[in-house]
Design brief:
Number of strands: 27
Shape: globular
Strand content: 35-45%
Length: 383
Amino acid sequence: MEVHVFRMSSVASPMPYSCAWDGPQTLVLAFFAPDFVLLPAPLERLRVAFPRSYLLGCSTGGGFIGPSVEDHSVAVAVMRFTSTRLCMAQAHVPSGPAASREAGESLGRALAAPDLKGVFVLSDGLNMSGSELVNGFNAALPSHVKVSGAMAADGERFKNTYTLVAGPGEPVRILDHQVGAVGFCGDSIRLTHGSGGGWSPFGLERCVTRSRGKIVFELDGKPALQLYKNYLGDQAHGLPATAMSFPLAILDKAVNKSEMLVRSVLGVNEEAQSLIFAGDIPEGSTVQLMHCHIDRLIEGAAGATDKLGKVAASPALTIAVSCVGRRMSMRERTEEGLEAILDALPEKTPLVGFFDYGELSPLSSGFCQFQNQTVALTLIQEG
């Protein structure tokens, strides 16, 4: 396995690796600023350079290579495998939880193979239910097949998100309502995962007295949006973006404290006085607001690396996906969280990733979980 990471900022950006890398055992990941949806020339150059490779990417809330975060570029990772076989599936999905679950099941079945070891997923971040997408994958695949990935982002705008999915010989198509997944097959592939949070519950525990999927209408019988506004005070003028710093914890869904479900607000409906979350919040759930201490968020990032276990110092790539809400809360200390991850990895292990609207990461049970406000790591090796 050979790995290289680089950044593209314009159509004139140099392409540091030749077409000798191109082929059906090469995966190109491209985490791009939303600007490139209207100015896709750099992404099209990737296809020209790698016409027979698999391309997978999405819009972000900022991409990074190592600890360096940029908002107007494309963070690219190229992996050329020696013996691992790649496969890809994609779907254009209508809005709604039922369609999201069906998409997960369909993609899982399409990728299923006796030697399938893992799947990496990138999805539209606003028009799909991350919870139901994950439920679909879990229903279609056995627990030994590890599923990870993320929901695309649009910075702090929360307007439109996009994915790029292209198999060998297929043109670049950057679309919304799209989910793509790449499967890793064979006995040589090694995939390990870890995730961490660092958020702290505060205030009263509350009951979700009325909800539908990822829309919460009432908490303790009171309008959910008004309750959030009361907590946010002056920050309520910046909704929904400011609510990213005050997610909800679902207390009665936690297998253990480290795997507590967290949900971020992605939108509000003034007329219905409701909150639109990134994932489902079942009616009757017990929830509690959360806030952050920056040092604990950094500790959470380091904790995600600890869960990878002992990492061999062979060629590897670490993909990190982290919630936009963490970046909004950490601001100028964002890079410290990425440095905490790098410090725990073997020297010269590349780190690439982006800020998203939701993370897909395996639980200790093996099955994937949809989460918000975490750092989720996927480490890929051969050998």
